[in-house]
Write a structure and sequence with these properties.
two-stranded antiparallel ribbon, globular, mainly alpha, single chain, 12 helices, 4% strand, Glycosyltransferase
Length: 386
C-alpha cells in the first residue's frame, strides 16, 4: 500500500460533474471506457465529500488527535488521476497542519496521543507527495525517525526487525512490533528511499531483519520456525498480527491441535511487506502468501474477521495484487479479473453523499473520513489499472 507521483493543478472541488482533464490517462483497453467513467464518477463523489470534511485548521474529520487521519485524505487528493489537487489551497492548508506535529526527535505525531510510528509514516508519505523543497529536512528527519523505530534486542527475539506503534502514547498491548505498523513503515521508507540515495552513510532500515520479522508472522513452517506456525491447509501461507498472536484468534485442528488463524488484511500486509523489501516473486514465502489469498479471495468480508477492518482489507487487496502484478485470480476453477469486481463492490456500497461507512467500529472503521479515504485510494488504484 506506491504513493510516489503527486503532480497536481489547482481546481476547486464542488460537485461530481467535473470536466475531464486533458492529461487524464486513457483506459488501457477501450472496452473499459464506460465502466471506467462510472468508476471515476464514484471517485469524484468521494473526493468531493472528503473536501467538505476539512476543518478550518486544515485537518480532516472529527478525530484531530492523530495527524495520519489528515495525511491519508491528502494522499488521496494527490493521487487524483487528473492531477487536480496537490497544489490547491486546501491541500496547502492540510500540509501546514501536518508540519505542526513535527517533534524534536524527527517524528510527526502528537505527544499526547502517540502512535508515533503510524502517524509519522503516513505523514511522511503525504509530505513527500507535496513536492515542497522546504520539506526536505523534515522528510529526512521523519524518515530517520521511522528507521530508528525498528526493534532489536527485544525480550522476545521473534519480534526483532519489526516496527510497532512507538513507545510514546502506546498502551501496553501495543508495546511491541506488529505486521500492520511494519507494512506502513516499509511503504513510507520504500517510497522515500530516493531522498537518501545520494547521502552515503545515512542509516537505513535493516531490510533483511525486517524480512525475517515478516516471515515470523507467516503460517509457513518451512520458513518460520516458531512453534505456533501451522502448515494446515486453511492457514498455510497466510499471516497473523505479530509472531504468536492473531486478531482472528485460533482454531482447533483435526487431531486436537491448535493453530493461530491467518486472516485477510494481514495476509495482504505480509505480501506487500515482502514486495516493498524486494523479496523475489518466486520466493516460497511470496508464492505461499499468494496461494492463501487466492484460496480465501472474497469481496464480502475480511477473511477471518468478518466485517472488522473490511474496507482496509479491500484497500490492501488492491495494493497487494497490483504490486504483485496479478490481474486475474483462479477461483473455483475459473480465472476472473478481480479489478472490476472490486470496483463494482465499492460502488455498490457507496452512500448517496459519496462516503462509505462500516457498521463495525473496530480499527476506527466507523470513522467515515478514514473509510472513505481507503475507498478513494482503492478506486484510484483500480482506475489506473483499467
Amino acid at each position: 500500500m506506491k504513493r510516489r507521483q503527486f503532480l497536481a493543478t489547482t481546481i476547486a472541488l464542488g460537485t461530481s460533474a467535473w470536466v475531464r482533464a486533458a492529461d487524464e490517462p486513457l483506459p488501457k483497453d477501450a472496452k473499459n471506457l464506460s465502466f471506467r467513467n462510472e468508476l471515476k464518477d464514484s471517485l469524484d463523489r468521494s473526493l468531493a465529500w472528503l473536501r467538505t470534511q476539512q476543518n478550518a485548521d486544515g485537518s480532516f474529520g472529527k478525530d484531530t488527535l492523530h495527524p495520519a487521519l489528515t495525511a491519508l485524505p491528502l494522499v488521496a487528493f494527490q493521487r487524483d488521476p487528473a492531477g487536480r489537487f496537490a497544489t490547491a489551497d486546501f491541500a496547502m492548508k492540510g500540509y501546514a497542519y501536518l508540519r505542526g506535529f513535527m517533534q524534536p526527535d524527527g517524528g510527526i505525531y502528537s505527544k499526547e496521543n502517540g502512535l508515533a510510528n503510524y502517524n509519522t509514516s503516513v505523514c511522511l508519505l503525504a509530505l513527500a507527495g507535496a513536492n515542497e523543497p522546504k520539506d526536505l529536512d523534515t522528510l529526512l528527519k521523519a524518515r530517520a525517525y521511522v528507521v530508528g523505530q525498528q526493534a532489536s534486542g527485544m525480550a522476545k527475539p521473534e519480534t526483532d526487525g519489526g516496527i510497532g506503534y512507538g513507545a510514546i502514547g502506546a498502551s501496553p498491548k501495543r508495546g511491541h512490533p506488529d505486521l500492520d505498523n511494519t507494512v506502513v513503515a516499509l511503504e513510507a521508507l520504500r517510497a522515500t528511499k530516493h531522498l537518501v540515495a545520494d547521502k552515503p552513510g545515512t542509516k537505513d532500515l535493516n531490510w533483511n531483519a525486517a524480512i525475517e520479522f515478516v516471515s515470523r508472522c507467516q503460517n509457513l513452517p518451512s520458513h518460520n520456525k516458531e512453534k505456533w506456525a501451522s502448515g494446515d491447509a486453511d492457514n498455510k501461507g497466510g499471516f497473523v498480527y505479530f509472531p504468536g498472536s492473531s486478531n482472528a484468534g485460533e482454531v482447533t485442528l483435526e487431531g486436537g491441535g491448535k493453530a493461530l488463524r491467518s486472516y485477510g488484511s494481514m495476509s495482504y500486509a505480509g505480501l506487500l511487506s515482502f514486495i516493498y523489501a524486494d523479496v523475489k516473486k518466486d520466493d516460497p514465502r511470496v508464492t505461499a502468501a499468494v496461494e492463501w489469498l487466492r484460496q480465501h479471495y472474497t469481496l464480502e468480508e475480511n477473511p477471518g474477521l468478518e466485517r472488522s477492518g473490511y474496507f482496509y482489507y479491500l484497500h490492501l487487496m488492491a495494493k497487494g495484487l497490483t504490486a504483485a502484478g496479478i490481474t486475474e485470480l483462479e477461483v473455483g476453477g475459473k480465472k476472473s479479473d478481480w479489478r472490476p469486481a472490486l470496483a463494482e463492490r465499492l460502488m455498490k456500497l457507496q452512500q448517496q453523499d459519496g462516503s462509505w461507512l462500516n457498521e463495525s467500529p473496530r480499527w476506527k472503521e466507523n470513522n467515515p473520513v478514514l473509510v472513505t479515504t481507503y475507498c478513494a485510494l482503492t478506486l484510484e488504484i483500480l482506475y489506473a489499472q483499467l
